[in-house]
Specification:
Elements: H1 2-19, H2 21-35, E1 41-43, E2 50-51, H3 52-68, H4 74-77, H5 81-123, H6 127-153, H7 158-164
Antiparallel strand pairs: 1-2
Helix pairs in contact: 1-2, 1-3, 2-3, 2-6, 3-5
Amino acid sequence: MADIFSIILFLAFIYLGIQFPKKAGWAALIFVPLLGPTTLTLVGSTLIPLTIYRVGFAITLGVVVSKYGRNFPVKLILHSNFVKLLIVFSLFVVVISLQDRSKNIIFSYIPNLYYSLVLCFIIIRTERDLRRLTNIFVFHAFIISVFVIIEYYGNFNLAFFIANSIPGFDIETTGLGSKTVN
C-alpha cells in the first residue's frame, strides 16, 4: 500500500509542478536543499521511498513539462562549461558506482543532478531571481548553522530526530555516530 501511495504522491507533485510551475519551483528550491541532507522521507516504501529529493525531481519534471513540453532546449544548458564538466564527472561516478549501487545511482543520484541543474536553469531568468536564490541559500546556511550550534552545545540532533520518524529505519545499524546516539 505504501508503494502505491508513494507513486500517487510522486505523480501529484509532477501535477503540482505543471499547474503552478513558478510557485512549485521556488518552493522546491527552498525546501529540498534544506531538508534533503536530513533524508526526510514523506512516504516510506519498499520499492522507492518518496524522499524530499524525489519530490524536488517530480516538481522539476512538472515544471519542465509546463514550460517546454517536449521541446526542452538541452543545448542551452550545455553551453556552460561548468555543466559540461559536471556531466562528465557524474558520468564517471555513474560508471564506477553502477555495479554495486545501481538502484541508488538511478533513483537518487541522477534525479538529484537533473533537479539541481534543470530547475535553476528554468526558474532563474533575471538578476532579481538570482538575488532571490542567493538569499535562499544564505537562509539555508543560517538555519543549518543554528542547528549545528544547537547540536554541538545542546542535546538535540535534527537529523537523528527526522531519521527516527522514518518507518523501518534504525540509526544504530548505520554506524553513524552522534552525541544523541552514543
